[in-house]
From TrEMBL:
Residues 172-269 form the HTH araC/xylS-type domain. The keyword Mitochondrion does not apply. Keywords: DNA-binding, Transcription, Transcription regulation. SMART domains: HTH_ARAC. Pfam families: AraC_binding, HTH_18. InterPro entries: AraC-bd (IPR003313), AraC_XylS_family_regulators (IPR050204), Homeodomain-like_sf (IPR009057), HTH-like (IPR037923), HTH_AraC (IPR018060). This is AraC family transcriptional regulator. It comes from Aminobacter carboxidus. The keyword Zinc-finger does not apply. It comes from the Bacteria. PROSITE patterns: HTH_ARAC_FAMILY_2.
Length: 275
C-alpha cells in the first residue's frame, strides 16, 4: 500500500467568525452525500482530484484548481482518483458578499464552477496562513472585499444591478435576530414584528440578498453551533439540545442534509483532525 493510501480521512475547521469559516479536509473515497449550504463555498484543491455532482453535471477539481459553489445549490463529493484528495474551503455568508460589493449589486453568479484560478487560490491560501488560529478582523475584512470583487469579475453579469429598492436594513435586522435567537423557536410573527415586512415579502427579499430562506438560515445557525460543540468533543445529544434541535434525530436529519455526512461521522473525522 502506498503512503498516500494510508493517510486517514479528516476534517479540521475553525469557529465561524465575522461571517467566515475555514475548513481543511482529506478523503480517500466517499466524502459527502448530497447536501447544500446557505453560504458561498470557495475552495482550492491541494492534492488529488475531488469529484462532485453540481447543477446537473459531474465536475472534477484537480490539484491547483479552485471551486466556487453558490448558496443553496445541491452537491456531493468523492475522490476522483485512487489516492484521494485534500482541499481548503472557505464558507462566506452571502450577506458579506453583498456588503463587499455595495448595494448596487445583487449576488454574483459564477458559471465557471471549477477553474485553474491562480488569483483565487492565492486569496484562499492566504486566509489559511495562520490556521487554525483566528483570522484578525482586518484580515477577514480584506479577504471578503477581495473575494467579493473577484466573484463579481467572474460572474455571468458583471454589470451593476440596481438593488436600492430592496429592504436591505430590514433583512439585516431579521438576519441578526435569527443569528442571536437560533436556539429557540422563531416564528414568522417574530420576524414581521422586527422588520415591519409581510412574511412573504421578507422571504423574497431575504433570498435575493442572502441566497436562502429565513428558515434555512436559522437551521444553519443551529447546525453551526452543534458542529462546533461536536468538534470540541461534546456528545451528539448534548450538542443537539444546546443548539435548539428537538432531539438528536432531528439534528441528524438536518446535519446530513446540510453537510453530507452524519454527525457521528463528523465527530469521528474532527477527532482525527484534533489529533
Amino acid at each position: 500500500m502506498t503512503p498516500a493510501l494510508m493517510l486517514k480521512d479528516f476534517i479540521a475547521t475553525d469557529e465561524p467568525a465575522q461571517g467566515l469559516q475555514r475548513l481543511v479536509a482529506r478523503f480517500g473515497g466517499h466524502a459527502y452525500d448530497q447536501h447544500r449550504h446557505e453560504t458561498y463555498a470557495v475552495g482550492h484543491t491541494l492534492s488529488g482530484a475531488q469529484a462532485f455532482h453540481y447543477r446537473g453535471s459531474d465536475r472534477v477539481s484537480v490539484q491547483h484548481e479552485c471551486m466556487v459553489l453558490h448558496p443553496d445549490e445541491v452537491h456531493d463529493g468523492h475522490a476522483g482518483v485512487p489516492e484521494g484528495f485534500s482541499y481548503r474551503m472557505l464558507y462566506v455568508e452571502p450577506w458579506l458578499v453583498c456588503r463587499g460589493l455595495g448595494r448596487d449589486r445583487l449576488l454574483p453568479f459564477v458559471p465557471g464552477v471549477v477553474e485553474r484560478d491562480a488569483e483565487l487560490a492565492a486569496l484562499i491560501d492566504g486566509a489559511f496562513a495562520d490556521f487554525p488560529n483566528p483570522m484578525e478582523p482586518l484580515q477577514a475584512d480584506a479577504f471578503v472585499a477581495d473575494v467579493a470583487a473577484h466573484l463579481a469579475r467572474r460572474s455571468d453579469d458583471a454589470k451593476p444591478q440596481r438593488a436600492t429598492a430592496l429592504p436591505v436594513e430590514k433583512v439585516a435586522a431579521a438576519r441578526s435576530f435569527l443569528a442571536e435567537e437560533f436556539d429557540r423557536q422563531v416564528t414568522s410573527d417574530d420576524l414581521e414584528r422586527i422588520t415591519g415586512l409581510d412574511r412573504f415579502e421578507l422571504s423574497r427579499a431575504f433570498r435575493q440578498l442572502l441566497g436562502t430562506s429565513p428558515h434555512r438560515y436559522l437551521v444553519g445557525r443551529r447546525l453551526a453551533a452543534a458542529r462546533a460543540r461536536m468538534a470540541a468533543g461534546e456528545g451528539l445529544a448534548e450538542a443537539a439540545d444546546a443548539s435548539g434541535f428537538a432531539d438528536q434525530s432531528h439534528m441528524t436529519r438536518h446535519f446530513r442534509a446540510r453537510y453530507g455526512i452524519t454527525p457521528g461521522r463528523f465527530a469521528e473525522l474532527a477527532g482525527v483532525g484534533r489529533a
